[in-house]
Task: structure prediction
Amino acid sequence: MRRLGLLAIALAALVAPRAGAAPQGRGIWISPERLASLPTTGPAWEALRRAAETPVTRPDLSNQEDATNVHVMAKALVAARTGDARLREEVVRACEAAIGREGGRTLALGRELAAYAIAADLVGLPPEADARFRSWLDAVRRRPLGGLTLISTHEDRPNNWGTHAGASRIAADLYLGDAEDLERAARVFRGWLGERDRYAGFRYRDLAWQADPALPVGVNPLGALRAGRSIDGVLPDDQRRSGGFRWPPPHENYVYEALQGALAQAVMLTGAGYTPFEWGDRALLRAFRWLHDEARYPAAGDDTWESHVVNFYYGAAFPAPVPSQPGKNVGFTDWTHAASLPLAGRVAGTASPRN
Result:
């Protein structure tokens, strides 16, 4: 209970605006201090500005391919950095329009929701709109969609469904200041990264890519081998979509899809004072390394934002184009997480580090 109490204090500091301060930029995705230091020139900034000027249609959180969410995030980043009142108003309207637009499957909600919570945090919603948004955000985490909820999907599905659901769950927890559910979500994520003593309640399917089928995990452990080949860092429940184990390993894009959700979880948990990039023997770094070195399969298309995050937090040098493309859930990390700037773990946390 003392652990939860300390986390609640840290979350209150993260979520509550300081006296006399502007309401935006409370730090779900990026700290206000870091945001204020980012450049407003260069190809990454220009790409972000173009995305921010994209007209947005009515949000559709039942459509897992709807790109409105990342365009709203772009508008919020630019508005928070520059004080652009027009873009801020567009974000406010979009966040209000997102309310009640969920439906279909939890995969869609998991992909779509996080960006709206991040955008609302960046710009600060007016009080009445904020109250409506909070009420909906609290309830939508537990709304059944196809027999699942966002929370149950995170805790049940050890693949891209679960990682995207976890990212949106964590974004909602942080926006709401829900310390208890955030602690639970962090524990689930740590279990997915391979620490089964933290959480092991996932339901796995084909186990062909698991290092130990008797002890399945979301990311294979350090040093794992199969038939003399390294499967250290493989995401077995997404790599299985390519079929059984074989070599050379198939290029299975569902792995990068799962990493979109996983990396978003890790960025937000870092801002809340956790150390997820270290969990599972640096599981996220090992996952990228396996894809690059063993599978010969670098990130491309709407996965290129992921490389910037991995390089930023680990001091790595994976191919990371500028400008990059946003993903299904978040993006623009070629600006927010440029590798030439100090590592985020040293500058972005607003709470004391947590294990």
Observations:
- The radius of gyration is 19 Å.
